[in-house]
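Open question from group meeting: does this chain pack into something compact, or does most of it stay loose? Before anyone orders reagents, we agreed to write out a predicted structure and look at it together. Recording both the input and the output here so the notebook holds the full record.
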Amino acid sequence: MLMIRNSTRSLVALTAIAACSFMATAQDSRKSTQRAKDEAAIRENVRKMEEGWNTKNGTLFAEPFAEDADGVPIGGRAFKGHDVIEKAHWELFKTVFKDSTITLQVRQLRFLRPDVALVQIHNHNKWQQGEAKGEHNSTITLVMTREVGGWEIASFQNTLIGAPSFQQK
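Structure tokens returned:
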């Protein structure tokens, strides 16, 4: 009788250990799946910025930004708010950048917490307006947060790499 009881206890203990291991594996799998979904959503926001710029659509460019987003573009003038970002880009697309194209490449995507990500992007901007040609590279740093409606850009910093090159034909 004592042997049966010990065997039953051992079987129960082994079953509990196996169940815990299975639950931990399932939880890791769910975390991995959620992480992949989060990364895809963040990359989609970067793609929207690129498409918004390349189609000269200030609304699309600003779509990923939070209502209270803030940031600093290359020129160093700080801005605050989604509506300001949208309007500023509609105006910017009327300037030397009206014929420009950008290529955005995510270089680093790091989760500071499950709902906060730091994203570093390499930006290559080419433009031609009349006889003036130019291009520059910059590093864009985004702080993104996961909100009820999805991932949003909370903060934006665009830092020029070196001096822009200007050429005259």
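Observations to bring back to the group:
The chain is about 40% helix and 45% strand.
Helices lie at 2-54, 58-62, 82-92.
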